[in-house]
Structure formats: C-alpha cells, structure tokens
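Q: Entry one of two.
A:
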Amino acid sequence: MAKAAQADGKKPPESVWTRPRRAKREQPTLTRDQIVDAALELLDAEGLDGLSMRRLGTRLNSGATSVYWHVANKDELLELALDRVMGEVRVPRPDDGAEADADDGPNDGPDAGGWRAAVAGYARDLRAMIHRHPWTVPLFGAQPMIGPNATRVLDEVIGAFDGAGLTGTALDNAMSLIADYVIGAAGSEASWQGVHGTATGEDWIQALGPYLDGIAERHPRLTAHIREVWVRDTAGVVEERFDYGLSCVLDGIEARTRR
C-alpha cells in the first residue's frame, strides 16, 4: 500500500509514534524527554516560530545530530510536544458530575450532573491547557493525535459521553464538535490576550472614543452595543461568552440524542 501511494505521488502517513525506536545500546546521553522539555520552553516563550532544530540544539548544548537521533524532523518534535501538553488535560467521569465544573449555562437540566458535566469539565480543562500553550492551536488537525497522552484523553472523552446514547459516527461527530468549539474559542481568546495583554474593555472604550463617535451615525446599533458590552469586566465577558457557547453546543448534542 505504501509503494502504491508513493507511485501516485501521495505522501504516506508518517508519525513519530509509528517509527521504531533505535536500540537502547545506541542511545546517546541526551534523552527524548530532555529534548521535549527544551522544546516546550521555546514554544511557550516564543511560539511555533521560535522553535527550530538548530535553536533547540543550542539550548541543549548539544549538536543537532543528538536531536535528530530521537526525531527525524520538526514535525515529529511537535507531535511529541503536543502529546506532552495533552497530558495536562483531565476528563471527569459522568459519575463525578458533582465534582466537575457543571455550570455550563442556564440550560442545566437533569443531565447536568451526568455526561453534560463530564464533557463540560473536559472542555474547560482543554481550554485552560490551550491558554497555557497557545502554540498548540495550529497543530490540532495537523498532527495525528495518537500519542499516549492524547489517546488517554480521547478514550476518557468517549467515557465522558457515557449516558448520552451516542455511538459510532454520531459519537465521533459530538466529540469533534466539542473539540472544535474549544479550540476555536480558546485560540481566539489566547490570540487577543497575547497581543493586547491586560487591556480592559474600558481601556478600549477610552482609546476608541473619538472613532466610535465618528461611526455612530452610520452604525448606531454597533456603537451602542460596543459601549454597552465593553464597559463590563473583560474577564467576566470572556467567561460568560465561553459558557454560553458551550451550553449551546451541549444543548444541541442533547437535542439530537432525543430524536
């Protein structure tokens, strides 16, 4: 199959997790964990653009050859880094609903302590991880999620949906919907925070005051809306927005289970 794919001009799927490791007797002093630790330091400090194999070798006081012994290229290194931070994500069990952060909006129903609470807890934990490591956002969907931490999370997410009555494609669609919502929302939040830091809505209202006055006649509804919302506590608005979206997603999934 691999030869046929190459003959057709298609690149066969590759992953650091499917490539056999070299024999331990050949292993250099530098370990895979040390490489991933150093890569994470660069990624968290400078993002994806700050990571290169050369800079990583310099940070480790080691030649690139030692790094390439463990990983074939930067893509494999990013696979390892993404799986490492996925280890920070925890997924409540449906029967842990009382302990999970079950406040997923005003539509909490009788299932708020069951699968909804478990899935909501996972969503919030994934969001928190993305805020700590915003460089992960472009990697979701680009890197195969087959490492030990990612597979543990995905298996637990399947368990979190226990009681929702979903199987097969329907379950896969629901899992993907939750992940897509969280990645999109958290990625947008992290991007804004990374650029604008601690600037509040009130700061923006003051800075944009003359501009809003200038467009108020053409866009009265928009300017009135901005002034109404942005005077509120920024962090509170962001949290409320995320909770509202998560509640709507969960409501939609639940509605489909009742058809």
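Q: Entry two of two.
A:
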Amino acid sequence: MNLVSAHYADAAARLKDRYASVRFEDVHGPLLPYLPVPGAWVADIGAGAGRDAEALAERGYRVAAVEPSAAMRRHAGLMDARKGVRWFDDRLPDLANLRETGILFKFILCSAVLMHVAPEDLERAFQSLADLTAPGGHLAVSLRSPRGDDRPGVYSEHSPPSILAAAEGAGLRLVEQGTSRDALSREDIAWRWSVFARRQPGEVFEN
C-alpha cells in the first residue's frame, strides 16, 4: 500500500461523512455547463465514497467511478450495486483497468486527485485522461496546494503552468479556469479548477 492509499484507508470513515455533507452542485458549480447530454458516459476519477458519481448518475449519465482505495470503495456501499454507476479499482497515472473497457467519455471529472500525483507522473496522467476523453468531450480537474499539516509524501505541488503544459502536451485545449473557495469552509484551502477540451477530428488548436 502506498502513502496515498494508506492515508485514505486511515481516514475513510471520517472523509465519507465530510464529503457527503456538501452537494455536488455546491462543489462543482462552475463545471455544470460542460456536462454532456444525459445518457452519455462520464467518469469520476478518484470517486471516493461516491458522492459525485451518484449525483452524476441521478442526472441521467452512465458513470464509471474510479477509486483506488479499497476502504473508500467499501464506504461507497458497492454491495448495493447502485444503478448507473460502474466501479473500478484503478489509479492515475495509467488508469489501465479503465482503458481496457474501450469507453471514451464525454466528460471526465478529476477532482482533488492530481495533487496526489507525483510531478514526474503528471504528463503521463494527463495523457491517460486525454486518451479516455471522447473527441469534443471535456476534462475537468481541480486541485489545491499542499498545507503544512498534510501527511508527508501524500501531496505534491503542481503550478498552474505545469498543469497547462501537461494538458497541452496531451492534446488538450484549455477552455476555462478559475478558483473556488472550499465548500467545507476551510479558510486555508483554495481550489484551482480547469476545464479542457479534446480536439475533434480535423480540429487544429491555435497557440
């Protein structure tokens, strides 16, 4: 078990209740305009206990929920086989199990995950995400900077230029970006979010 998995195994019960205390719409409001037509395949990378995956399923999407922490998946209640959500034991930077499905997603949510990816793996992570995004689809990512009291080895710092460079290197175009206050009212945390588009056949991105 690596440090990130150990961190979430130790905190799974507490984090489940914390995440469930806020609504999908309150956390991801700026991303709602990029959701595709209901019925499309979407993916939640780092799905945790399933709050966002369930909210997307309730909106009418077919959802692939990716969560590497067995403890978090247990708290998601996988034995209930929730309608519209298909769970995967998988992780960045490769997402090998999700790739094997052959599904391309019209929308991918990667929320509070990239800060757990090591800097040397960031480009590979974005390439995996880009490869899973359908042409014309969108990838939405959010992350925060490490804090002084974070568990050592669990969080990495990725500057805005490094995120943009990794995305562009994977063939993604920045559509919108911004910052959001923490939905859990933690004053020392601010979230940076970005939405990227994957080019459609024949489309050329201008520099």
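A: Comment on entry two: The chain has seven helices and seven strands. Residues 20 and 51 are 6 Å apart (CA to CA).
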